[in-house]
Amino acid sequence: MKGYGVSFSIDATFKNRIAFKFTLTDPGVVVGTERVRQDLKEYLDRVKRGDNLDDLPVITSLEEHEVVVTTLKNRLSFLQHSYNLAKNAAEFYEGLIRKAITMPVLPAQSIVVQTGGSLSAPTYSAVNSPQALIGNGSRADNSVRIALSFKELQEQIHGIDEILVRLRNESANDYRDEAVRNLKNVKEELEQANSPEPNRVAAWLEQARQALQFGSLGYETVQAAKELFRIFGMGS
To answer: Fewest Cβ atoms nearer than 10 Å: which of 5, 95, 101, 213?
Structure first.
């Protein structure tokens, strides 16, 4: 359209830079570097402004000029359409991410767990026994509370870690191993499930509590267990 032809390429020989390279393709036509730079600037300015390109000067033949202008308009229209589609898609997914981040978590339902099975704890009259401190599992009005916020969830996971560390220092027996296994199940559910299942969490916690009631636990382990069940809303 300007009376000369060029080939366009990218020159990546410069470190940390990308250069645009224009090479004249018409032998015998002499065009200065400054003119090519000015023509390119004019073209970019028109594209940015959204000019219709109908007022471009006719340098080549009228027929050739019409073909090139029409081709250029179609190409710019296609690029603008592709850009709008990509922009709309990006904004749509960004909106989904923002909604997922800000969407309130529905409160977990309160689950009543009734005890039973071979590990049900006997009744102890000693006030300082582990059963008295941890809570007797035979009560039917215990419920489990799963944290609604990230901070509370981390507090519950930290409580499980605390008692697991204590239990590893206790004498090994089947009841201790049973408690450890169920507490690990609870931790895995809280860490990996998008929406922890209250029924499973309640069942595992209750089984862990029943197992702990049989063991001869140290004072620090008993206190850690008491704190753990408190943060899950299962205090005695």
So the answer is: 101
pLDDT at position 181 is: 92
Show Cβ contacts of residue 117 under 8 Å, excluding neighbours closer than 6 positions: 207, 210
SS3 at position 95: helix
Handedness of CA 219, 222, 226, 228 (dihedral sign): positive
Q: Is the dihedral of CA 158, 163, 165, 166 positive or negative?
A: positive
Q: Which two tokens stand for residue 143?
A: 């419920």
- Amino acid at site 62: L
Task: Answer yes or no: are the C-beta atoms of 5 and 26 closer than 8 Å.
Answer: yes
Amino acid at 152: E
Q: How far apart are CA 206 and CA 212, in angstroms?
A: 10
pTM score above 0.85:
no
Residue owning tokens 């029924």: 199
Alpha-carbon span 198 to 112, nearest angstrom? 10
Distances (CA, A) of 54 to 10, 65, 121, 201: 29, 10, 91, 71
pLDDT at 184: 92
Q: How far apart are CA 6 and CA 37, in angstroms?
A: 12
User: What region, left, alpha or beta, does residue 50 occupy, with left being phi > 0 and alpha being psi -120 to 50 degrees?
Assistant: left
Distance CA 71, CA 82 (A): 17
